[in-house]
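Researcher: Let's try something more involved. This one mixes different molecule types, so please make sure each is placed in the same coordinate frame as the others.
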Amino acid sequence: MLMLIISLFCGLIFGLGLLISGMANPQKVLGFLDITGLWDPSLILVMAGAILAALLPFQWAKNQSRSLLGQTMQLPDKTQIDRPLILGSLLFGIGWGLAGICPGPVIVLLGLKQINAIYFVLAMLAGMWIFQILQKRK
Amino acid sequence: MQINWNEFSPIASFAGGLLIGLSAALLLLLNGRVAGISGIIRQAIFASNKEMTWRLSFILGMLISPSIYFVLFPYASIQIHDNVTLLMIAGVLVGYGTSIGAGCTSGHGICGLSRLSLRSLTAVVLFMSAAMLTTFLVKHF
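Model: All components are placed in one shared frame. Result:
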């Protein structure tokens, strides 16, 4: 139960961070991605702030097997730079560049009752579903 | 390159970034879980196991965040593309791409870089470059 409350709180803080920083605003994101136009570098500071806050906790957590509340520490263990990583990141980047929307912000946009966010979410879930189907076939 | 000083928002963006990082740090330190949003969404819906509930809870928190934001900033405005076809193509690419690439801006960008993972750095460089090139092409063609 405590884990669920913490998750809820973390989701709330994460969403507020996206809204305050401008990441949840697709126009702002596209203004950042448009480096050859009138460029808005703000989102570099989002990354800087986020990494500044997360760097030491993540470095500490690397060497722990349990969280402070005794949960298993589930950090990714993959280090290989393989084809799926490269292809997936490129496809994700193309999608991100088309609409200026990535998975976190679109949830916040849904919460903002932006009707058009529903189309993006449904299509995103379809993309994830295709992956799940192909995974099962392997 | 020209900087858009009118839109540049260093303080708000940095402060928002700190909150995002704080959220990722708390989720890891307390719950031992990584705040990668694409993975959270996919596994909340398609991987039915006991790890579903915390993911749904996290998503619920994100969904209610705007109602708190608008209490603090009542005049904020956010606009989204109105081209439905473009939104859907982008959505499929984001959904499928983050699934096979195992992460997005949060998972690779924030958590991965904070772990100093070379794999995540590669992902970030690739998706940033692809996104910037796509934005350029959409604007000029």
